[in-house]
């Protein structure tokens, strides 16, 4: 895995509108989202507060809510917008080509 490499995550239709999936690669975990407008995004896969999997959380518009302590993050920017989350998520570029979702590492 090299810096800047595009990695295939899944078929575009595997992520429902206003949903999130978990994607593991090597020692890393990512969360890949599809918002209510149908846009795709990717962030680190763990909440920065308690290291719980965000893929188990709830997508609400452009927000992801952690399943453990209900901290929230803005999906496009990764910004922490509701305590106890206070540190932003790393975000990753996403593209959809030939009906497949890719993230850039």
Automatic annotation (TrEMBL):
| SUPFAM superfamilies attached to this UniProt entry | ISP domain
Q: Which InterPro entries match?
A: MocE_2FeS (IPR012747), Rieske_2Fe-2S (IPR017941), Rieske_2Fe-2S_sf (IPR036922)
> Which Pfam families does the protein's record reference?
Rieske
| Presence of the UniProt keyword Transmembrane in the record | no
Which cofactors does the annotated protein need, by name? Answer: [2Fe-2S] cluster
The residue range of the signal peptide is: none
Assigned keywords, A-Z: 2Fe-2S, Iron, Iron-sulfur, Metal-binding
Rieske domain span = 6-103
What PANTHER family does the record tag this protein with? FERREDOXIN-RELATED (PTHR21496), RIESKE DOMAIN-CONTAINING PROTEIN (PTHR21496:SF0)
> Which family is this protein grouped under?
Belongs to the bacterial ring-hydroxylating dioxygenase ferredoxin component family.
Protein's UniProt name: Rieske 2Fe-2S domain-containing protein
- Origin species, per record, is Paenibacillus artemisiicola
């Amino acid at each position: 895995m090299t810096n800047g490499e595009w990695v295939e995550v899944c078929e575009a239709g595997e992520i429902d509108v206003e949903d999130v999936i978990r994607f593991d690669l090597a020692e890393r975990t990512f969360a890949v989202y599809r918002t209510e407008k149908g846009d795709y995004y990717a962030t680190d896969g763990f909440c920065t507060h308690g290291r719980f999997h965000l893929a188990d959380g709830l997508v609400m518009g452009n927000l992801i809510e952690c399943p453990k302590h209900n901290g929230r993050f803005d999906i496009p920017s990764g910004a922490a917008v509701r305590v106890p989350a206070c540190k932003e998520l790393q975000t990753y570029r996403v593209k959809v080509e030939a009906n497949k979702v890719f993230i850039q590492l």
